[in-house]
Amino acid sequence: MDQSGDKHYISLIIKGDTASFAILVDRYKDMVIALSFRILQNREEAEEAAQDTFVKIYKSLSRFKGDSKFSTWLYKVTYNTCIDRLKNKKRNLLLVYSEYFEENELVSLINVLDFLEESERRLMIKNCLDLLSAEESFLLTLYYFREHSLKEISTIMGIKENNLKIKLLRSRKKLAAIFKAKLEPQFIGQYGK
Fold first, then answer.
1. So what's the architecture of 3-89 in CATH?
2. Does residue 27 contact residue 3 with C-beta atoms inside 8 Å?
3. DSSP string, 16-31
4. What are the structural domain ranges in the chain?
């Protein structure tokens, strides 16, 4: 997207040209809906979250300083809107706690994953990520699959880097516990004891 073009339209909107906001919405609506869907896992809710996001953006556009790209700011507002929706609805997401997960168990899980075909591995990882909370899944996706730095994720999620490291560690442990629970029955059934 053209950042200088975004600044031009933002300037027009702030001066009262509300029709210019439709141009920004058209530019970014697909990105906002896709991100919302990844977090909320429901198309209708994602579309509602996208509408809420654009309303928030419109109302606070005059506070956009331009320190970052407009798309980065929009990404952050979208994320926060979706997380707020999850908190407000108090969804019962499956949380797997593994405070005492042994390192040797983690190594054996990695070895089992090596035996899986690439497509099976991707599907297994996606299915396991879906069992985490939206925040945990989003965090692990940004860090491992989108390869964002801790600093970038900290900015996007509005979490201090030290807290982010702790959340990342806990999320990895939960994901590892889910892998273990899903993989053990599969491989015991295939290979016996």
1. Orthogonal Bundle (1.10)
2. no
3. T-TTHHHHHHHHHHHH
4. 3-89, 103-191
